[in-house]
Amino acid sequence: MLTRATLTNDGRTIELGWEDGTRCRFHAIWLRDNALDDKTRSAGNGQRLITILDIPAETHIGATSMKGDALEVTFVPEGKTVSFPVQWLRANAYDRDEPRQPGWTGDVIQRWTKATMQNSVPRASYAAAFHGRGILREWLSAVRTYGFAVMDGLPAESGALCKVADLFGYIRETNYGRWFEVRAEVNPNNLAYTNLGLQAHTDNPYRDPVPTLQILACIENTVEGGESSVVDGFAVAAALQGENPDGFRLLSSNPARFEYAGSSGVRLQSKRPMIELGPDGELICIRFNNRSLAPTVDVPFAEMDGYYAAYRRFAELIEDPAFEVTFKLEAGQSFIVDNTRVMHARKAFSGIGKRWLQGCYADKDGLLSTLAAIEHDFREAAE
């Protein structure tokens, strides 16, 4: 319950207090810009109907009153009164005392290692996810929380991986096509198409933006070896930061360069850090792919030794079995990874038998949008 609302700074700010002792302050201009009335926001889609220039620069609060579970605020000089639900104010509070340390992640993200994940890999059957929104919600939520999940029960046929993408969004087509084959080839244009083992990596760091989701589906797998594995890049980055804060700083504040020129008419290049932080220090992306790393030319000479030491240690941690979760895909199984967070790898396999996987890319915003819509519907049904 909201217990008090006190105007400060001549009405340009307001301080709110709750009965549990929590307090937070809001600026009048912020409240006016985020007003929820139908003259400020569209009732249909929630988008703003005004611009910042439509709000008087001298906006302040002239009066407030508490009515039930809402706070009514009158803005001057407009003379406009807007009602703000108390729960909305609490959920959108930005007046925080504690500073966030670089490398933080939101509460919904759970970092993991082999010890915490090997025996609890998130999975669902395709039929159950297709027919049950509750199952689909759990599976999509696992991808959001852990950065990967397995799906069983797909048809063991070419193109079946598209069914996974169709559950939440759309395939992102690239120069590799709508989807691509992952099996041994003669004179391949990518090492993924051989029977060699692959170091844990994120895909396509030479793109800007990178594909944010990758789906790999198994059509046939009768070889010895060839197990898939995943590594939580966020957990590895946290480990590096814990033992070598300066190394973490070097990998997150200096860009690496990536490039690909393996196909005729294709020359892809990007310049982004291996560990990417947002402006507020949030850990938002891992890019790690030794095969695609171009010469690093953006690190100052005085810091290059330290940068390479951090890069080496980051690679050692990624290779540490303590961070690796391993599973073998059988025909009709697939897995999805958040390509901005989770690295995937493959063990070497023999030339006896066949291993045929197909891969494609999709966008995380579609997955998160579908998940948010399902969660919204479930909340409304519960109310």
UniProtKB/TrEMBL annotation:
Under Gene Ontology molecular function, one entry of this record is: iron ion binding
Q: What's a GO biological-process term for it?
A: carnitine biosynthetic process
Record's keyword terms, sorted: Dioxygenase, Iron, Metal-binding, Oxidoreductase
Provide the TauD/TfdA-like domain boundaries.
137-361
Cross-referenced InterPro entries, in alphabetical order?
AlphaKG_dependent_hydroxylases, GBBH-like, GBBH-like_N, GBBH-like_N_sf, TauD-like_sf, TauD/TfdA-like
Q: Gamma-butyrobetaine hydroxylase-like N-terminal domain: which residues?
A: 7-90
Taxonomic superkingdom: Bacteria
Q: Which CDD domains match?
A: CAS_like
Cofactor(s) demanded? Fe(2+); L-ascorbate
Q: Which Pfam families match?
A: GBBH-like_N, TauD
Which family does the entry's similarity section mention? Belongs to the gamma-BBH/TMLD family.
Please identify the protein, giving its name as recorded. Answer: Gamma-butyrobetaine dioxygenase
